[in-house]
């Protein structure tokens, strides 16, 4: 299993999965995404995006958004490694901080993300937070990570090494919520789910 930059030809796959999971596709560009790939089968397991905001009168802002894991690959560290790759990309682009706007912050907190006061957000993200609360996630809160502070929990690194595609019999719908962490959408309304590392 590895994570690489998305390719133009994967745009349809990305859009289909973004829609199926109820994720944010605002200002979609496939080149902003990374995709987790199973090296044996070539199956796509998960994806995520960094969105760069370019205010006219302020430095560029880096936002982590639209992270999704295909149901057959959940609870195996895929989402964690997508996030790691995105944080690496942000660092390579000289961003010191990465922001995220989420309804349930616990998943990102395990990597070092911390809640931030709305008043301390860059203006562009304050506007985006207002829009997200209005249209997607009423309880979204802002979080921030200093790129150099990213931490990958050992349990997620180990799971990723052994990740394999599961069938429906391997994992039932009843334990989906326990397997996957929410990134801001009500689980009864959508499937905005991520690896938690919890059992």
Automatic annotation (TrEMBL):
InterPro entries given in the database record: Acyl_CoA_acyltransferase, GNAT_dom
A Pfam family matched in the record: Acetyltransf_1
Origin superkingdom: Archaea
GO MF annotation terms: acyltransferase activity, transferring groups other than amino-acyl groups
Stretches assigned to the N-acetyltransferase domain: 1-148
Record's compositionally biased regions (Acidic residues): 172-189
Compositionally biased residues, Basic and acidic residues: 190-199
Region (Disordered): 162-199
Name of the protein: GNAT family N-acetyltransferase
Protein species of origin: Haladaptatus pallidirubidus
């Amino acid at each position: 299993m590895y994570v690489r930059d998305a390719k133009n030809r994967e745009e349809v796959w990305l859009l289909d999965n973004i829609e199926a999971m109820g994720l944010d596709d605002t200002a979609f560009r496939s080149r902003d995404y990374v995709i987790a790939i199973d090296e044996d089968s070539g199956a796509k397991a998960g994806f995520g995006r960094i969105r760069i905001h370019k205010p006219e009168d302020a430095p560029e802002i880096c936002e982590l958004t639209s992270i999704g894991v295909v149901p057959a690959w959940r609870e195996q560290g895929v989402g964690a490694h997508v996030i790691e790759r995105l944080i690496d990309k942000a660092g390579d682009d000289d961003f010191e901080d990465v922001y995220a706007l989420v309804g349930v912050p616990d998943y990102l907190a395990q990597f070092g993300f911390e809640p931030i006061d709305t008043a301390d957000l860059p203006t562009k993200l304050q506007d985006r937070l207002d829009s997200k609360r209005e249209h997607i996630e009423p309880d979204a809160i802002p979080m921030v990570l200093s790129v150099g502070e990213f931490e990958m929990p050992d349990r997620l690194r180990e799971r990723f090494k052994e990740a394999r595609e599961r069938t429906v019999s391997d994992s039932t719908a009843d334990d989906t919520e326990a397997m996957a962490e929410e990134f801001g959408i009500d689980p009864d309304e959508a499937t905005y789910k991520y690896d938690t590392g919890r059992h």
